[in-house]
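Fresh eyes needed here. Kindly weigh in on this sequence plus structure tokens:
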Amino acid sequence: MIKKIQEIAIFPLNGALLLPNSNLPLNIFEDRYLSMIDYSLASNKHFGMIQFKNKENKKLYSIGCLGKITSFNETLDKKYVINLFGTSKFEIIKEITTEKSFRIFNVEIIDNKNYYDLNKSFDRKSLIANVRYYFQKIKVDIDWNYMEKINNEELINAIAVICPFENNEKQMLLESKNINDLGDKLIAILEFNNNKTNTNESVN
């Protein structure tokens, strides 16, 4: 298989999860990332989302998700409100040295083939039951009417994106092999968080 190498700007942001075929709204206010959005809009409207593995030394995880800007608004105070749609995951190859204020990398795009083929045996009821209990536990209200109406793939992505999991748990979801693996990991993380008593615990 021929490797697909691409040069992209990357936005490191802990706690933010972008997945293939999902949406992530972002408020951009730092000058360097305002410049990054201008750079992306001037080219192909794409940039990558990724988390810090170690924020102190600016070390990143190797896997992130490429997204395309699908909506863009500038506020009165010159900030940007955008929606980013996940197109594919990527793996970092190397950072490119530039004079820009934001970081640019060569990455290998990960093939999405068969990623969305969800098994018919997917346990939707278990996922909804676990996420209901989880949000009751953390005292957060969400639109359950919307959650009940969307299809299984959209449900899995939506819950993975909105749940305030630990960074390593978010990364575990991102690195799922496919939508089935993502669904299984999501239920496992929800069950773990629903059962744990020590708030400092997280799935490893």
Observations:
- The chain has two domains: 5-109, 124-195.
- The chain is about 35% helix and 30% strand.
- Residues 124-195 form one domain.
